[in-house]
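Possible regression after last week's pipeline update?

I re-ran a chain I had predicted before the update to compare outputs. Posting the input and the new output here so someone can diff against the archived version. Not blocking, just want to make sure nothing changed silently.
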Amino acid sequence: ADLFDGIVMAEQRFHGEGYQEGLAEGSHAGMAEGRRHGALHGARISSEIGSYLGFALTWRCLLQKCIDEKTSKKMRALDSLIGMIQKFPYKDPTYDKLQEDLEKIRGKFKQVCSMLNIQVDFRMDAERSSLTF
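New output (post-update):
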């Protein structure tokens, strides 16, 4: 009876072993792919936010010499954008409002560009990102 049990149960045993091996291999491959995807996506976001910060700091320096009501509003908007960027949680990938805060920064950037009468086109594609004025 034991001989036949081994033969009859072999398919089930091999199925279980194959499942466990496949699960372990798939988990390993998924972790590696997830790391690559996360690093790429994080680099894109950092590049985008870095562009916004450089833009805002440059314009703040350019506008410091002018003191009038219109310039004052532009400076406040630039300071707000800079503050939002400085508060952005770069080091916390588990931050639950990351996408929401990123959208707020994008919106503020568009508002600042509108106030400065600058046409902006920010493109994100699979190979590179570009910010043109």
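Follow-up from reviewer: compared with the archived run. The helical segments are 2-63, 69-87, 98-115. Marking as no regression found.
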